[in-house]
Design a protein that fits this description.
Layout (H helix, E strand, L loop, with lengths): L6 E7 L4 H17 L2 E8 L2 H5 L6 E3 L9 H11 L3 E5 L1 H14 L4 E6 L3 H4 L5 H14 L5 E4 L2 H11 L6 E3 L9 H5 L6 H4 L5 E5 L8 H14 L3 E5 L5 H10 L6 E5 L5 H6 L2 E4 L8 H8 L4 E4 L5 H4 L8 E2 L4 H13 L4 H8 L4 H12 L5
Parallel strand pairs: 1-2, 1-4, 2-3, 4-5, 5-6, 6-7, 8-9, 8-11, 9-10, 11-12, 12-13
C-alpha cells in the first residue's frame, strides 16, 4: 500500500511567539485528519518545543537564518515531495515560493500571513517598508494560496499587492485546544491569584512595542485610584526594564507583577477579572480568543486587525481606541462593575477551535474549496 506524501509545515522556531504555538496546534490537528504531517524547521530554539510533547516528526534544516535555508528546503522538496508545504512568517513564506521554483516539484505551496503588514511597518523608515513590501508583491501571488488569519489581514495584503488575489483565504487560528480547560484548572499558588477579594487584571504577550503595555500600565493606574486591583503581565521581551521603570514612576509597582514567559498561561487567564489587550497592531490576537474561550471578561483596543472581528464590532466586549489610557480604564471599570455573560464570551471563541481550523487548512492544502 502506497503511503500518502506528507503535509509539511515550514517555519523558524526561534522564539515563543504565537506563530510557533499555532503551528504546533495545527500540526496536531492535521494528523488525525490526514495522517502524515511533519514540521520542517529552520531553527528549533523555541521554548514551545522544549515544553511540548511533540507528536509530529520534526526535521531541522540546521541553518542560522531563514533565508539561508533556501537550498536545503529545495532539496527537501525534491527528495520528500510533500503533498503541500505550508509556510508561516514572512521570510519563510518567501523562501517557500523560491524553494519550489528551485526544486521544480509539483508541491502545493500555501503561505500563512498572521499580521497586518501596513500597521506593523507604519513607523518604519521608507527603505524598511520597501524591503518588506517588494518581495511580498512579487512572491505571494506565485503561491497556490495565502491564508490570512483575519479579514483585516486579507484586505491589507491585497492593498499592499495592489490588486485582488483570488488565492487569499481567511481561516481562523487554531487557538482552542481540546485540553485548554484542563490546563486552565492547574493550580498556581500565587497569592494574587488566590486572593478572591482583589480583582486581577491580566495582560499577555511579548514585551514589545506592538503590545503597547505602557498604555495598559497607565490605564491600570487610573483604575487603581478608583478601586483596589492588581495587574499581572505574562510574557518576556525587550521592554521589561522600561515597563518596570514606568510602573515605579507611576507609583503602581507594588501592584504590578511581570511574570515572564509562562508555558501554561491559562490558569492566570481563567482566574482574571479582566483580560486586557492593549496592542497597536495584531493579525488575530490568540490571547484574546483564549480568554474568551475560558469565559474571562475582556477589553481590547480596536487595533488592526482582529479584535473587531473576534468581538463582533464590540457586541461581545468593549473595544477602545489605541493609546488611550483614559478610555481603557473606563472600559475596565465598566466590565468590573458589570461582568458579561460567560456563555456569550465562550460562543465568540467557538470558530477558533483546532479542529475547525485544521479542517479548513486541510482543504486549502489539498486544493479544495474551504
Amino acid at each position: 500500500m502506497l503511503m500518502k506524501p506528507p503535509l509539511a509545515l515550514f517555519l523558524n522556531f526561534s522564539g515563543q511567539g504565537g506563530v510557533e504555538r499555532m503551528m504546533l496546534h495545527l500540526a496536531k490537528g492535521l494528523q488525525p485528519l490526514y495522517g502524515s504531517v511533519e514540521i520542517v524547521a529552520v531553527k528549533t530554539r523555541s521554548r514551545y518545543l522544549q515544553n511540548d510533547a511533540l507528536s509530529v516528526p520534526l526535521q531541522s534544516l540546521g541553518v542560522k537564518h531563514t533565508l539561508q535555508s533556501l537550498p536545503r528546503l529545495a532539496l527537501y522538496l525534491r527528495k520528500t515531495r510533500p503533498a503541500a508545504l505550508l509556510a508561516a512568517k514572512d521570510r519563510a513564506n518567501q523562501v517557500a515560493v523560491l524553494a519550489r521554483a528551485l526544486a521544480r516539484t509539483p508541491t502545493r505551496v500555501v503561505l500563512r500571513l498572521g499580521t497586518t503588514i501596513s500597521a506593523a511597518t507604519a513607523h518604519k523608515p521608507r527603505w524598511h517598508k520597501a524591503a518588506w513590501a517588494l518581495p511580498i508583491r512579487y512572491l505571494y501571488p506565485k503561491a497556490d494560496a495565502v491564508v490570512a488569519v483575519s479579514k483585516g489581514v486579507a484586505r491589507d495584503l491585497q492593498e499592499l499587492v495592489g490588486r485582488p488575489l483570488d488565492s487569499v483565504v481567511v481561516i481562523p487560528n487554531p487557538v482552542i485546544t481540546p485540553d485548554l480547560i484542563l490546563q486552565a484548572q492547574q493550580p498556581l499558588g500565587h497569592p494574587w491569584v488566590d486572593d478572591g477579594n482583589t480583582p486581577l487584571l491580566i495582560g499577555m504577550g511579548r514585551l514589545t512595542t506592538q503590545k503597547d503595555f505602557p498604555t495598559l500600565l497607565r490605564a491600570f493606574q487610573r483604575v487603581r485610584t478608583v478601586r483596589p486591583c492588581r495587574l499581572i503581565l505574562l510574557g518576556e521581551g525587550s521592554q521589561r526594564r522600561s515597563l518596570e521603570a514606568l510602573a515605579r514612576h507611576l507609583g503602581i509597582a507594588q501592584d504590578v507583577f511581570l511574570v515572564g514567559f509562562v508555558p501554561n498561561p491559562y490558569p492566570y487567564l481563567k482566574r482574571a477579572a479582566v483580560f486586557v489587550l492593549s496592542s497597536i497592531w495584531e493579525g488575530s490576537p490568540n490571547a484574546l480568543t483564549e480568554a474568551l474561550a475560558l469565559g474571562t471578561p475582556v477589553v481590547a483596543t480596536d487595533c488592526p486587525s482582529g479584535p473587531r472581528e473576534i468581538l463582533q464590532d464590540g457586541a461581545v466586549a468593549p473595544l477602545v481606541p489605541m493609546r488611550d489610557p483614559e478610555a481603557m480604564a473606563h472600559a475596565i471599570l465598566d466590565v468590573l462593575d458589570h461582568p458579561p455573560d460567560k456563555g456569550r464570551l465562550r460562543q465568540a471563541a467557538a470558530p477558533y477551535t483546532v479542529e475547525n481550523s485544521a479542517r479548513m487548512y486541510l482543504k486549502v492544502l489539498l486544493g479544495e474549496d474551504p
